[in-house]
């Protein structure tokens, strides 16, 4: 083979090796796109139990069972699935079950495993010179089997008064294991500003009812234990999971329901200031009590409802994993508003509100986060409901 033939042969082989000509291998197919993650299931609200009688408060036992107060004066022990009653507890004192009074909130001792106290608040009937009157009281007893033993009243609202409205009451243990008690002003208005009374106050007491260190100094004549004042009728309370501060919801008059952070020595303005109006006034801005604006003398609410009331009741911060999109949000039941409210927060600022399940016609009395991250709701119609996915 001569030099010319070798050159032609080499050029032909080189061209084939570089992909020239029709004999080259096809380009690989592109990799398939990853399968998108399925969208999370929508929240589903189901009824676990519809046989309760005016349930008011709920607490979870370590084994997953629940204690539920019923306004007429009983505490039920429900199975962990909520569908059946295990027992009715004994050892509950007599309550003044009339109007808005009765057996109200319930909470477990922070050290329940070693100190199995159950705390509950209720409308206590007066005796002797206070016969015919009533006042919010807090008692505790040790849960032994299905009995509350050694029951003791650790706090009594002072004074007892006539009527059957606006007792509060919610119980929340702080991180330091002292107890916050949110108290209504019994529809009397001015006692909320009177430091010689505990109507319309949040009080902070130790687990045995004594007064712990760290309460504000409010001057001569102030009753011990008062933490904050100027409240109308708080029926929701929850501890912020990060800051440890007490958040409360309270009923306004005609409009003016509020969410507040109850801080040491804070005065929240009732009955001097409210964004609501007196009953019977034409609805609108002009009738706002004291002009509405609380600052600078009184504490402004974080959010409020106008022109009509939703009557908030029950309060819970969401910290579970079942609804990651709701982490850190605040949930409130409502009575007149007949909805579950979801409040989105940016720090301590309420940036959005949504009324959920308003089509059911239910008065949502309490909302609690279950151990599995579901939300459990109590309704005045006697239902225990579960919001889950």
Tell me about this structure:
This protein is mostly beta strands and 389 residues long. The protein is 4% helix and 37% strand. The protein has 1 helix and 24 strands. A 4-stranded antiparallel sheet has the order 1-24-23-22, with no helix packed on it. A 4-stranded antiparallel sheet has the order 2-3-4-5, with no helix packed on it. It is globular. The relative contact order is 0.11.
Which descriptors would you attach to this protein?
single chain, 389 residues, mainly beta, four-stranded antiparallel β-sheet
In short, what is this structure?
It contains one helix and 24 strands. By secondary structure, the chain is mainly beta.
Give the biggest sheet.
4 strands, antiparallel
Q: What's the multimeric state? A: single chain
- The averaged pLDDT comes out at 93
Q: Termini separation (Å)?
A: 82 Å
Number of helices: 1
DSSP strand tally: 24
Structural class: mainly beta
Uncertain stretches of 5 or more adjacent residues: 1-23
**Tell me, what's the shape?**
globular
| Percentage of residues in DSSP E strands | 35-45%
Order of helices and strands: HEEEEEEEEEEEEEEEEEEEEEEEE
As a percent range, the share of helical residues equals under 10%
Gyration radius, rounded: 30 Å
Strand order of the main beta sheet, please?
1-24-23-22
Describe the protein's topology:
Layout: H1 3-17, E1 44-49, E2 55-60, E3 66-70, E4 74-78, E5 85-88, E6 103-108, E7 117-125, E8 134-144, E9 147-156, E10 168-173, E11 179-183, E12 201-205, E13 226-229, E14 234-239, E15 246-250, E16 257-262, E17 303-305, E18 312-317, E19 330-334, E20 340-346, E21 349-356, E22 364-369, E23 375-379, E24 384-388
Antiparallel strand pairs: 1-24, 2-3, 3-4, 4-5, 6-7, 7-8, 8-9, 10-11, 11-12, 12-13, 14-15, 15-16, 16-17, 18-19, 19-20, 20-21, 22-23, 23-24
């Amino acid at each position: 083979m001569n030099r010319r033939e070798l050159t032609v042969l080499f050029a032909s082989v080189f061209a084939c090796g570089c992909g020239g000509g029709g004999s080259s291998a096809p380009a690989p197919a592109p990799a398939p796109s990853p399968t998108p993650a399925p969208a999370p299931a929508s929240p589903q609200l189901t009824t676990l139990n519809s046989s309760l009688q005016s349930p008011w408060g709920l607490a979870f036992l370590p084994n997953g069972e629940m204690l539920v107060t019923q306004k007429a004066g009983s505490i039920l022990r429900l199975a962990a699935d909520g569908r059946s009653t295990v027992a009715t507890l004994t050892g509950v004192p007599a309550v003044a079950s009339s109007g808005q009074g009765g057996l109200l909130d319930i909470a477990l001792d922070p050290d329940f495993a070693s100190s199995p106290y159950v705390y509950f608040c209720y409308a206590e009937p007066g005796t002797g010179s206070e016969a015919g009157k009533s006042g919010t009281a807090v008692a505790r007893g040790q849960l032994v089997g299905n009995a509350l033993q050694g029951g003791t009243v650790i706090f009594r609202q002072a004074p007892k008064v006539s009527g059957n409205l606006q007792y509060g009451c919610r119980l929340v243990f702080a991180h330091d294991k002292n107890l916050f008690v949110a108290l209504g002003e019994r529809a009397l208005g001015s006692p909320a500003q009177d430091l010689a009374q505990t109507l319309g106050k949040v009080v902070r007491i130790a687990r045995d009812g004594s007064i712990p260190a760290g309460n504000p100094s409010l001057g001569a004549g102030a009753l011990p234990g008062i933490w904050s004042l100027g409240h109308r009728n708080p029926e929701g309370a929850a501890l912020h999971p990060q800051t440890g501060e007490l958040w409360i919801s309270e009923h306004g008059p005609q409009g003016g329901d509020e969410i507040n952070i109850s801080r040491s020595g804070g005065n929240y303005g009732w009955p001097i200031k409210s964004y609501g109006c007196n009953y019977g006034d034409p609805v609108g801005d002009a009738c706002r009590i004291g002009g509405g604006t609380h600052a600078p003398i009184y504490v402004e609410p974080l959010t409020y409802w106008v022109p009509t009331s939703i009557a908030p009741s029950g309060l819970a911060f969401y910290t579970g994993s079942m609804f990651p999109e709701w982490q850190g949000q605040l949930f409130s039941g409502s009575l007149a508003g007949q909805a579950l409210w979801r409040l989105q927060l940016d720090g301590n600022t309420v940036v959005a509100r949504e009324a959920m399940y308003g089509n059911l016609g239910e008065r949502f009395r309490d909302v609690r986060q279950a151990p599995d991250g579901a939300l459990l709701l109590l309704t005045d119609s006697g239902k225990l409901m579960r919001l889950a996915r």
